[in-house]
Amino acid sequence: MDKIRFATVWLAGCSGCHMSFLDLDEWLLELAAQVEVVYSPVGCDLKIYPENVDVCLVEGGIANEDNLELIHLVRKNTKTLISFGDCAVTANVPAMRNMLGGAEPVLKRAYLELGDLQRQLPHEPGIVPELLEQVLPVHEIVPVDIFMPGCPPDANRIRATLEPLLKGEKPLMQGREMIKFG
Amino acid sequence: MSVKTLTINDTPVAVEAGATILEAAKQAGITIPTLCHLEGVSDVGACRLCLVEIKGINKLLPACVTEVAEGMEVQTETAKLREYRKMTVELLFSEGNHVCSVCVANGACELQDMAVTVGMDHSRFSYRFPDRPIDISHPSFAIDHNRCILCTRCVRVCAEIEGAHVWDVANRGEKCYVISGLDQPWGEVNACTSCGKCVEACPTGAIFHKGETTGEKTSDPGLLDFLVTARKKQQWIR
């Protein structure tokens, strides 16, 4: 049997979910034996999201043009897309900027009102991705197959989600151990 | 004392006339999920989590404010009710700004627990991200309206147990929010005795002790039931 093609992506989140993934410690060796890591900020150095990915953990909400482009590519090329952590599932802390209105008041607040020296709005088309008006959870942009809440989901929850998938089964996301937010 | 007999989930129950379906269910050992219900104060049917199905009535009724009747046939765990409860919790999350990870009540929140109970792993409704204020004018406490689910437990505990009636509800629909005094900053309301009962009554992190940070709030709703029992029955028991 071919190895499961496994990926993780990091969108608008703090990378805490990926740190929690690394908390899997020695189980990472077992996982590595069963999957081929084809894209991941913590497990692989490839820069382009590949085709035919079996399972992808998506950390973070959708906050800018870059996130938006990547999540569409991830969806197109992935069989099982997992919203990984509260930012992906609810937009969480990154979405607290949504209460300020749109992208413009957020940028003005951060770069003009609170700036010390050389107050200016960042503008580098093609280099610095433009902010979207609102930060949104992944499932409001593309369909999601499995939701794994938690800020971050702890290593046990990550393992309990991935283990059934390695056997071709769907994990049961219920109960405090699996779906508590925060 | 007249007694009514009814069935809840096909289990026969005999209960005092005038009791609510929620009380009858509790007596029969059947748990109906609630958020706005608080032992010791009146019920208002605000959260809609305790909706039940009653044979012969084609709409769902809140168990906390529906009196039992002779021969009533109540169902509390149908597929339809489970789905509605899950939707209700998702609506509560999407209506306000509930960011569990940075909330004082993380780990001790009835809304967070209810999401687990009803099996909510995401919200199917779009988050509204409303612009809501925080009032830190009181010397000891604070209220963050982002986390308020409008259960009105603070309103009832303040009016009915403390007798101060500092809290009330203003406006309707999406503009609805709890007010202190005559919609004044909490710290300027002379009627407030700073007793802290509203803090204990709040099911979420909306009303909290100043200085508490993420995950530090531990509310004690049982304290209020204790006070009522002590006052009415002269029994100081918990």
Summary, kept brief:
Chain A has 182 residues and is α/β, with parallel strands linked by helices. Chain A has helices spanning 16-22, 27-34, 65-77, 86-90, 103-113, 155-166, 176-179, and strands spanning 4-10, 35-39, 53-59, 62-64, 78-84, 131-136, 146-148. Chain A has one domain: NADH:ubiquinone oxidoreductase-like, 20kDa subunit (Rossmann fold, 3-Layer(aba) Sandwich).
**Beta-strand residue percentage of chain A:** 15-25%
Main β-sheet description of chain A: 5 strands, parallel
Helix content range of the residues of chain B, please?
25-40%
Question: What is the overall silhouette of chain B?
Answer: globular
Q: Largest sheet of chain B, if any?
A: 5 strands, mixed
CATH superfamily of chain A: NADH:ubiquinone oxidoreductase-like, 20kDa subunit
What is the highest CATH level, the class of chain A?
A: Alpha Beta
CATH architecture annotation of chain A: 3-Layer(aba) Sandwich
Question: Looking at the chains present, what oligomeric state does this protein adopt?
Answer: heterodimer
Given helix and strand content, the structural type of chain B is alpha+beta
> What string, H for helix and E for strand, traces the elements of chain A in order?
EHHEEEHEHHEEHH
Poorly predicted runs of 5 or more residues of chain A? none
First-to-last CA distance of chain A: 38 Å
* pLDDT < 50 stretches of chain B: none
User: Which pair of chains has the greatest number of interface residues, and how are they split between the two chains?
Assistant: A-B, 30 and 24 residues
Rg from Cα of chain B: 19 Å
SSE succession of chain B? EEHEEEHHEEHEEHEH
Tally of individual helices of chain B: 6
